């Protein structure tokens, strides 16, 4: 196998991290509109009400809402075949429980999609990338409540019908897998995904399992509706997965590592194998957790199977073992690997892990895989002559792409696309900073409020252009 001629080269962005315009054209308040900026050492603050003295980066984003034409033109100049972007639920249903959509919200996304199509760029639409209307959290308790599944499906149906014939690739959710009773998540993780703080969850294991179940069910039901509306639609769900390696060959450590990695796959099992996994139900039972399953859900799992799997890949980690230094954990709770270098934000850089993960996942499911995010968050320096020499970014991406090619060409993994996070600098999800930059395109917005939002090309811009033009031969 070689990289296909129609391999989907491009990038991924998310509404709450780039759009800004948080109160324009009828948009409602969403969960991320209540989160301040933080840093690698200071967690983002999750506010109940807005404090005018604080900085809420989603309110302005990188002003993609007004500058999308310029940005899409730059993506087109790099030769993008695809752009993955999310729809902010709160633009379409400002409170989430309305019965008719906000037409101005729909009009905005039609304009964006039309712009992409006019440049020959395939839109890949994520329906949930941490953009829940806050009203659904406050009034219904977010995904703990099955009513929210109905509201989500109503939103999805609106989107599938409105974009029928224009959009062919859909993603039901971004990274729901971080919600699990086993997780030792920080507040920001459960908040990002469900609008609820980890530390404030009552009966935590039960609540997390219920949320995970409802989101999994919602994804399957959305897949079914999407296929009903247009059988040409390709529907995926995106997971943020870290390979978890054992520290050594002690069988207990090997088993721990396996279990820590495997917990991120139960939802993929449910979405690909036609039923909610029995092993997970047994595991829950042993912990005294009961799942709010209904008889009719069986049909949803049976009919709502994915067409492709989206993988966000940034880092790998080490499974827990006796005597481990728990202070040295990665963002997702795994331990750091002494063989690997870390980014400035502590994310282990592991290109080989990408090949491993592609193989592991493809062998398990046999479904096409799209790398929906991969990239390096780094501090960029603008030189006196205005250039940005981000060779470290080129190095990171190049090494990952070489491993991706090996997975395709040597290991015969069916990988259908590679989307970088993010092709343009935007607000970091975990820290809320602008300083943590990922783009080929620099955005002049600084964390202290300075900057005019102007865009400029980094050195990596031309590099990625060359990679795409050669369909991955120029590496
Ligand atoms: C993924 C999210 C993205 C993005 C990325 C990088 O988990 O899907 O939204 O933010 O991580 O994380 P950060 O922005 O915190 O560097």
Task: Reconstruct the topology from this structure.
Elements: E1 8-12, H1 15-18, H2 64-78, E2 82-86, H3 89-92, H4 103-118, E3 122-126, H5 134-140, H6 146-162, E4 169-174, H7 187-194, H8 204-229, E5 234-240, E6 244-245, H9 251-262, H10 266-272, H11 278-286, H12 297-303, E7 308-312, E8 317-318, H13 351-365, E9 369-373, H14 391-409, E10 415-421, E11 441-443, E12 455-457, H15 459-469
Parallel strand pairs: 1-2, 1-10, 2-3, 3-4, 4-5, 5-7, 6-8, 7-9, 9-10
Antiparallel strand pairs: 11-12
Helix pairs in contact: 2-4, 6-8, 8-12, 13-14
The protein binds 6-O-phosphono-beta-D-galactopyranose (BGP).
Model description:
This protein is an alpha/beta fold and 475 residues long. The protein has a single domain (8-469), classed as TIM Barrel (Alpha-Beta Barrel). It has helices at 15-18, 64-78, 89-92, 103-118, 134-140, 146-162, 187-194, 204-229, 251-262, 266-272, 278-286, 297-303, 351-365, 391-409, 459-469; strands spanning 8-12, 82-86, 122-126, 169-174, 234-240, 244-245, 308-312, 317-318, 369-373, 415-421, 441-443, 455-457. Strands 1-2-3-4-5-7-9-10 form an eight-stranded parallel barrel, surrounded by four helices. Strands 6-8 form a two-stranded parallel sheet. Helix 13 (351-365) packs parallel to helix 14 (391-409). The longest helix has 26 residues, at 204-229. It is globular, with a radius of gyration of 21 Å. The structure holds 6-O-phosphono-beta-D-galactopyranose (BGP). 6-O-phosphono-beta-D-galactopyranose (BGP) is lined by residues 14, 174-175, 240, 312, 373, 377, 421, 428-431, 436.
